[in-house]
Amino acid sequence: xxLSTSVKLASFLMLIVxxxxxxxxxxxxxxxxxxDGVIKVLAKDSVGKPINDxxxxxxxxxxxxxSYTTGNDGIAIFKGICxxxxxxxxxxxxxxxxxxxxxxxxxxxxSFDKTMLSPYHENDSCCNSMxxxxxxxxxxxxxxxxxxxxxKDNTKIAEFKxxxxxxxxxxxxxxxxxxxxxxxxxxxxxxxxxxxxxNEDLSFIETLIGAxxxxxxxxxxxxxxxxxxxxxxxxxxxxxxxxxxxQIGCYYTGHDGxxxxxxxxxxxxxxxxxxxxxxxQDFTFIIKCNDTLNFTKxxxxxxxxxxxxxxVIKGKVVDDKNTxxxxxxxxxxxxxxxxxxxxxxxxxxxxxxxxxxxSYSLYLLKTGYTxxxxxxxxGCNDTxxxxxxxxQTHSDTCCTAVLKIQAVDDSTxxxxxxxxxxxxxxxxxxxxxxxxxxxxxxxxQLCAPLTYSxxxxxxxxxxxxITYQFAECNTESMIIRMKRP
Length: 485
What we know:
This protein is mostly beta strands. It has one helix spanning 5-22; strands at 37-44, 55-60, 63-69, 75-81, 84-91, 98-104, 109-115, 129-136, 147-152, 155-161, 167-173, 176-183, 190-196, 201-207, 220-227, 238-243, 246-252, 258-264, 267-274, 281-287, 292-298, 311-318, 329-334, 337-343, 349-355, 358-365, 372-378, 383-389, 398-409, 420-425, 428-434, 440-448, 450-457, 464-470, 475-482. It has four domains: 33-115, Carboxypeptidase-like, regulatory domain (Immunoglobulin-like, Sandwich), CATH 2.60.40; 129-298, Sandwich (Immunoglobulin-like), CATH 2.60.40.10; 311-389, Sandwich (Immunoglobulin-like), CATH 2.60.40.10; 398-482, Immunoglobulins (Immunoglobulin-like). The model is unreliable at 15-30 (pLDDT under 50).
């Protein structure tokens, strides 16, 4: 029986499809019998939990073979891998990128577990805190795509975006003082601060107001003064602000024991005051439309009232030219252990209160100055006033330079967000971040005279690299045009 022309054609096409599918291996020579290798990659965080939404890409030489995004199991599997050397690249916003190489032998099955660290991760047992940030508008609707700039000790360390439900979860956070700056198109920027203790979990709900919206009842003020039982003003007392049971802010009293919380809307709030050596104090208040309320709170010491622990160390920080040094860090230590620290105010003044009798060390630190230490001996309830000299570092080096970079599409001239920017010095990576919605990224606290190499990468575009030398500490802006292959 003769076959019709259409049947012959169909059979021929099926044969072609079979041959193509049989040869569809990554970087495969159809005659190569060593192209059934498997590479399995598990992405996990520092506590061993799988990470979803990790982009895992496989490269051979300079060509990307394939790329997968992990699910809830954190796993990507590459099949049909031929003998050779490969590079695996893991990337996810909020984590440090991972690059590593591997060798695939004939039809090997290789498995790798990779731990991704957050960009603010430190080798510290107190780095397992979690902070949940929810962002809503004035009507309570969740806001996706809001940019969160995370700062620690006034240095920007990471940038994120809220997900589809207006939430971002910061994991593996270390203890310390942080600030978050929230910004989004058509919304007024908002920043807030918080302090993390060892492996503490916090949750915040922040409301962004429309750029053209005027909330007439959100200019309330709460002024707080913290005193000890003798009426001395207490610095460095933590002020935790709550609304509807959720912490919405954390602040610290200055050397004058004072802090003013502004931009409070008409609502009921709770405050918890706490400080080393004192019993916590909690109180609740209602801010009516644009009220200004004043609170003076007396903190009760946890030690015996008759003890010799009411000493005071106060002083002023100046440089070797007798010029006031603001924002210097002063650490109080005893027997080699740091007890507490404060910052000098705008006039260089600082104060430690409730100091017990004994011998102490004061450590003074600030960028651009030589770290200095002083010894102090306290008698029973002494008050000691000191002027501490913090010498400037006498060299031509400064570390206040700023580099601003904007990434734009070469063909359209439009700004590009989420472009990865890496800044290196002497082949050492010193910063990694992503451009914002306007295509800009700013890196502060660069030093001069130094030369930096900058690399910009974005999927679908050629990598752009530049070198810039800061001869002096100034602000330099540049536009980098990203080209497609």
